[in-house]
Structure formats: C-alpha cells, structure tokens
Amino acid sequence: MNKLAAITAFLGGVKNRYITYKPDRTLEEKFALAAQIEGLDGLELCYPADFGDLGLLKSLLDGHGFGVSSVNVRSRRTGKWLRGSFTSPHAAERAEVVADFKRAMDLAVEVGSPRISTCPLNDGHDYVFEMNYLDAYRYAEETFDTICAHNRDVRVCIEYKWNDPRTRCMLASAGETLAFCQGVGADNLGVTLDIGHSLLAGERPAQSVAMLSRARKLFYVHLNDNDRNWDWDMLPGAFNLWEFVEFFYYLREVGYTSDWYAYDVMSKEIDTVETFNAVTHLTRKLESLAERIDRQQMTVIMRERNPVQALRYLYDRVLGDA
After folding, report:
1. Non-local CB neighbours of 196 within 8 Å, separated by 6+ positions
2. CA nearest 70: which of 11, 147, 156, 146?
3. Residue 160 φ/ψ region, left for φ over 0, alpha for ψ in the -120 to 50 degree band, beta for the rest
4. Which DSSP symbol is given to 234?
5. How far apart are CA 117 and CA 102, in angstroms?
6. 218 - beta bridge partners?
7. What is the band of 322 on the pLDDT scale with cuts at 50, 70, 90?
8. Which of 16, 82, 209, 279 shows the smallest number of beta carbons within 10 Å?
9. Quick one: average pLDDT of 258-285?
10. pLDDT of residue 63
C-alpha cells in the first residue's frame, strides 16, 4: 500500500489572487497540523522554505515519526528567475539554478528522501515570438543534465503543468515531459504525475500512467482533482470519479504500489485538518473501489472494446447496489 504525504505549503498560508484564507504558519505549526491528519505517513517538504533551520526540521521529523516523500524545489521565486529558471537565456542564472538544486539534492539525502521534485511553472511563454524555443529546450536540457549528474542516486522529478503563471508552460503534458526526459538521457530524470495537471492537460490520467511506466519514467504521484478548466487543487474524486478508479487500477497494474502519494489540496475556507482527513479517507475509498474490479474479467471486457459492457460492469461491480 502506498504511503500518504501532504505538501507542507498547503498546511501553511492559503490564498489566491483575491482572498487570503489561511495565515502563514511556522514549521512547528505545520507539523502540529500534520500530526492531526488521520492516516498521514509523511510530508513533501518545500525547499527553500522548510530548510531555514535544518536541525529543527530533523527534530520535528523524528519527533512526529514522519517520512519524507520528496523535497519540492521551487524553481520560481519572487524577485529572481523571472524569465524562467531552467530556460533562462542568462548563463549566470542557469548556473545559480544548478547550484541551488544541487544543494536541495544534498538536503534530500540528509532528510532521507529518495527524490526531489520541481514544477517549472515559470519556464514558458505568454505571447507568440516571446522566446526562442530552440534555445529554451537546449538550455533546459543542459541544466537538468548537470543537476542529475550531481547525484545519480537521487531521482529528479519534473511535474508538468499546462499553464500558470505562464499562459503556456514549456513542459505542459505527460508526452512532452517524457520526450524531454528521454532527450536529456539521464536515468534519474523522470516525471511527477499530478492527476490534476493531467486532467487539465486534457489527458486520460490512466493512459499517462501506462505511457510513463512503459518508459520507466513514472517517478512520483500527486493527488488532487479539478473540473478540467483550472487547477483548483480539490478533494480527490470530487469531479472525476471514474478517472480516479481507472487511475488507481492502472497504478496497481504497473506496480506503483509501495511508494508515495502526495497531496496538493487547497483547504481554502474549510478547516485544514478536516480537509486533509477527508483527503486521506477518500484516497483509501477510491483505492478500494478500484480493487473491486476483477482484473481477469476486466481484461476480457476490454479486449472486446465494448464500452457498454465495461460501464455496466463498473456500475454493477464497483458501485453495487449504491
């Protein structure tokens, strides 16, 4: 069974462009909230925010018995790398990014994490003829290749996203990110599959699981949900129930069964602990729904390529008399 982690940023201040819902919280306060979440096994730490006092961080991890699913390295920062980090046209900025990521990899090892993850949100474009795409891909390949070479035992995971804050991110889909990773050619470079980002990109998330797994690049999984119009970071299964059932079905098919799920879910005006208690509960419920499917029988049904049979089976077998 996969372990469950919350990204620490979602346990702190919560706000959007218009409203601040939750105040900023100290590291100790975030850990205190996490300790109240039922079924939570650990945290995805944020770098640099959570690493101001490494001794305190280690003490909190030990005291609460939390594991570390990943270190989330923020490649977008207020006041720097405003035209992109990995794709910056300035060699000095890219060198600064590399140095920062090497430091994050070292810290990940110190806190017992097998990986770092990053979402290159600011590496993209807003307008046509804004950037030289050929240069941007070359700069990103060189930057990630150098980062990966620092420690081949630490997995470097790219979390793709269609947009935000750019109108179009450079690595916006599973296929684009897989192609990019294969172009770099580093064995320890792979993909964080955020199901909400997959939905936003118009993907069928279970298909993305299959594609990334076949290429041995499915490195990590984030859970949340949305209405496919925006990355709302909502409770798993709130909108896309059957996509979640199929997603968990295929995660088991490809052997992603003893790693981590991490949550980026926004509690907004609802109590943070209440929200994440629902998140962990829904995750296990969705897993159990997927487990109701007889895999041999479903294999036969899918071989027929008859969605009428498939849907009748799913409603009868998974939902039963509900």
Report:
1. 222, 223, 224, 225, 226, 231, 232, 233, 234, 264
2. 156
3. beta
4. B
5. 12
6. 191
7. low
8. 16
9. 97
10. 98
Residue 211: closest CA among 174, 183, 186, 248 = 174
For residue 306, the one-letter residue type is N
Q: What is the mean pLDDT of residues 80-92?
A: 95
| Whole-number Å distance between alpha carbons of 125 and 166 | 6
**Any residues with CB less than 8 A from the CB of 79 and at least 6 apart, and which?**
none
Instruction: Give the SS3 label for residue 67.
Output: strand
Residue 105 token pair: 């990899």
For 110, phi and psi rounded to 5 degrees? -65, -35
Q: How far apart are CA 104 and CA 150, in angstroms?
A: 11
Condensed to tens digits (0 to 9), the pLDDT of residues 38-67 reads 999 999 999 999 999 999 999 999 999 999
Look over the chain and give the mean of its residue pLDDT values, rounded to a whole number.
97
User: Could you report the per-residue pLDDT of 117-153, keeping only the tens digit for each?
Assistant: 999 999 999 999 999 999 999 999 999 999 999 999 9
Q: How many whole angstroms separate alpha carbon 158 and alpha carbon 49?
A: 19
Q: Tell me the average pLDDT across 68-81.
A: 93
CA quadruple 51, 55, 56, 62: dihedral positive or negative? positive
Over residues 198-225, the pLDDT tens digits come to 999 999 999 999 999 999 999 999 999 9
Q: Distance (Å, rounded) from C-alpha 146 to C-alpha 165?
A: 26
Q: Are strands 14-15 and 20-22 parallel, antiparallel or unpaired?
A: antiparallel
Q: Which domains does the chain have, with CATH numbers?
A: 3-291 (3.20.20.150)
| Stretch (H or E) spanning 277 | helix 272-291
